[in-house]
Specification:
The protein has 683 residues and is of the alpha/beta class. It is 38% helix and 18% strand. The strands form five sheets. Strands 11, 12, 13, 14, 15, 16, 17, 18 and 19 form a nine-stranded mixed β-sheet that branches. Helix 2 packs antiparallel against helix 3, helix 2 runs parallel beside helix 7 and helix 19 packs antiparallel against helix 20. Keywords: Cell cycle, Cell division, Cytoplasm, Mitosis, Nucleus.
Length: 683
């Protein structure tokens, strides 16, 4: 069963109550004249703009869109997000790929009117009822399957439906405990309905696990409801995270921390980036840019014990600092990487981030090194570069010893190195190389399951060395096994070549040809296996096991498999008939006919002749050279056996006469009555 990760489906729910129309309590400077050189102080004061205020609704929407931007930049596929407001009964977008993306979410959220503090409340629909409808909409969206989950079910792969719900709300207007209780009961009831009525529906599945993240937003100047994140296990299907956060600039930072936790991300700060000043192009300064990527890029730092020394606290988040480097060597020499990941800057709108992104998208690369304060030598640890207009970070193999410095110990033994099927493995990799998907049409027609099945078939019986199997070490079978059988359409010339390979085995078997070192691809020390009596039987068995994985490729593949299978079956039947059902009196004539038609090997004939000669010798010793038939022989045998038993005792007194029994028996002459009987006197 495939357990889809929790971060595969994320639903963001916004509280659209009137409370979120209040100002967050933090002001934002928006003075555009500060970027240009003012002519005078009085003119600067006259054009200065007053600070701006943001509502709680604006803070929540901006933080959610920033969270979505990070997810879409790092995971273009299979990390889906849907947004719902308490004002709407349904989600504003679906799981379909066409409705995923930051641009689509921004356009849809822009059409929603923000909450209005002065708007009259709808008495017909109280806030509790509106909230319940929104929570039900979240659960209905969660039971709907994504395209990836539907493909797994179509391929008969069982899945577990899991996901995460992030709810922007406030404990000042709502109690959070009833929300958790509602989710527990609603999930239980919804799963019962799906099990009873929609069990065979391919578009919905019951909920196996949900993680509810309740973000309690407070005003900028107020204290937090909880100083630490609380985790509650409400039921088997529901786990709740209670997060309290101040609004304003603190909320996006909190969402970045949650994204790190939910998607296994890490932050790397690229320091000392040389950049020209915006106002003075003749001078330059060093800037820092923080980027997000998968945390596996820091594994080597952790293994070498350098990770703790590179940590720096920025806004309460652990950040790994790596220095901008200008290596003297060519960037193409850094081809040995251990892992890679997409990157996205945290402050995407800042000037340093824009300059770094433009620099990388122009086709250049940036080498990052570990700070000198951490190590005594210069170590280049990571590389930033682009692939297909997407920016990646690569982790270089900067350990003490490179994996290509120490050559394999097998290189010292040339014979063992030649035994490896290196050329066949190279051809196998070339014939199974996947090209990058460039268009949407290629993506829709990409059959990943078929490719996986093909690889499983090809690797099911793939010996690593020539000497591992008999058929892989024979020169005559090398083209048959390596080039032809792995190709799905077999041409006429390849078909004739396959026929020649099989004819060679049949001719060698009929002639009882002995295998020498000249027939082998690699030399072997022990030729005993090639001199066994059942050597050719082993060849047909290995050929059958090898061709079994290719029989579904085409009709010609199936023909070769059936041919080899029939040959092996006929050999087994011939041996069984000879060993069990052969009449000894007709053995010599039958063997002569079989030997003329070449239906069985000569070794089997010799073995059966030995058994027949032993049977004849045994019968002569038992019966002798007399002309007795079977009845006379059997009667004589029974008489001899009866002589071994003791004779009846009375026969010694009555020779050639009938021996009477109970001679001393006397009958009582009294009439029968009570107590009457027979008297017996035995002398």
């Amino acid at each position: 069963m495939v357990n889809t990760p929790l971060n595969h489906k994320t639903i963001i729910l916004f509280d659209h109550s009137n409370f979120f129309s209040n100002n967050c309590g933090q002001t934002y400077e928006f003075d555009v004249t500060s970027k240009s050189k003012p002519s005078s102080h009085s003119q600067n004061q006259s054009h200065k703009l007053s600070p701006l205020n943001k509502s709680l609704w604006t803070c929540a929407v901006e933080a959610a869109l920033e969270f979505s931007r990070i997810v879409y930049d790092l995971f273009p596929e299979n990390k889906l997000i849907r947004m719902i407001t308490t004002k709407h009964d349904n989600a504003i977008n679906s799981w379909h790929e066409s409705e995923q993306g930051l641009e689509h979410l921004m356009n849809v959220m822009g059409t929603i009117q923000p909450p209005n503090l002065t708007a009259p409340q709808n008495l017909n629909q109280p806030e509790e009822l509106i909230l319940c409808r929104a929570l039900n909409a979240c659960l209905n969206a969660m039971v709907q399957l994504t395209p990836m989950q539907q493909n797994l079910i179509k391929n008969k792969v069982p899945i577990k439906n899991t996901g995460r719900i992030i709810f922007f709300t406030s404990s000042q207007t709502r109690k959070l405990e009833p929300i958790q209780e509602f989710f527990v009961k609603a999930i239980e009831e919804l799963n019962k309905v799906i099990d009873m009525s929609a069990k065979n529906d391919l578009s919905v599945r019951k909920i196996d696990k949900i993680e509810l993240v309740l973000i309690d937003m407070v005003l900028y100047e107020q204290n937090l409801t909880w100083n630490k994140e609380l985790i509650l296990q409400n039921s088997q299907e529901l786990r709740t995270h209670l997060v309290s956060c101040k609004s304003g600039s603190n909320l996006p930072l909190k969402l970045i921390k949650l994204a790190q936790k939910f998607y296994d991300l890490a932050i790397t700060s690229v320091t000392n980036i040389p950049m020209k000043e915006e106002l003075n192009a003749n001078s330059s300064a060093n800037y820092d840019v923080d980027i997000l990527h998968h945390k596996s890029l820091h594994d080597q730092l952790k293994i070498l014990g350098l990770l703790k020394n590179c940590f720096v606290q920025k806004d309460g988040v652990n950040t790994v600092c790596l220095k901008w480097s200008n290596p003297k060597t060519n960037i193409t020499e850094f081809n040995l990487t251990t892992s890679s990941s997409r990157i996205t800057p945290i402050d995407v709108n800042s000037r340093p981030s824009s300059c770094l992104t433009s620099f990388l998208l122009s086709g250049r690369c940036v080498v990052l090194e570990i700070p000198r304060s951490t190590t005594s030598t210069k170590i280049s640890s990571h590389v930033l570069c682009t692939h297909g207009n997407e920016i990646f970070i690569h982790s270089l193999n900067y350990s003490i010893k490179s994996i290509i410095e120490d050559r394999p110990s097998i290189d010292n033994e040339g014979d063992k190195l030649k035994d490896y099927r290196t050329s066949e493995f190279i051809e196998f990799m070339k014939s199974n190389t996947l090209s990058r998907i460039s268009t949407l049409y290629d993506k829709e027609n990409f059959k990943s399951q078929k490719i996986v099945e093909r690889l499983e078939k090809l690797t099911q019986n793939f010996p690593i060395t020539y000497s591992e199997k008999i058929i892989t070490n024979l020169n005559q079978l090398k083209p048959f096994l390596t080039r032809i059988m792995s190709e799905e359409p077999i041409t006429d010339s390849q078909y004739s070549e396959c026929v020649k390979c099989l004819e060679y085995i049949q001719n060698a078997e009929s002639k009882n040809e002995q295998i020498t070192q000249e027939h082998l691809i690699t030399q072997v020390d022990d030729l005993s296996i090639y001199k066994r009596k059942d050597f050719y039987k082993l060849i047909w068995t290995e050929l059958e096991n090898f061709l079994k994985q290719y029989q579904d490729f085409s009709d010609k593949h199936r023909f070769f498999y059936n041919h080899v299978k029939n040959v092996k079956t006929s050999m087994s039947k011939s041996e069984t008939t000879i060993s069990r059902n052969l009449d000894p009196r007709k053995a010599s004539r039958t063997f002569e006919k079989l030997q003329e038609t070449n239906q069985i090997p000569k070794e089997v004939l010799e073995f059966e002749n030995d058994k027949l000669s032993k049977r004849k010798k045994f019968s002569k010793d038992l019966i002798g050279d007399s002309d007795l038939n079977l009845f006379d022989f059997w009667s004589k045998t029974l008489i001899d056996k009866n002589k071994c038993k003791p004779d009846f005792y009375a026969r010694s007194f009555y020779t050639n006469q009938i021996a009477p029994l109970y001679t001393n028996l006397k009958i009582d002459e009294n009439p029968p009555g009570k107590g009457a009987g027979v008297k017996m006197e035995i002398s």
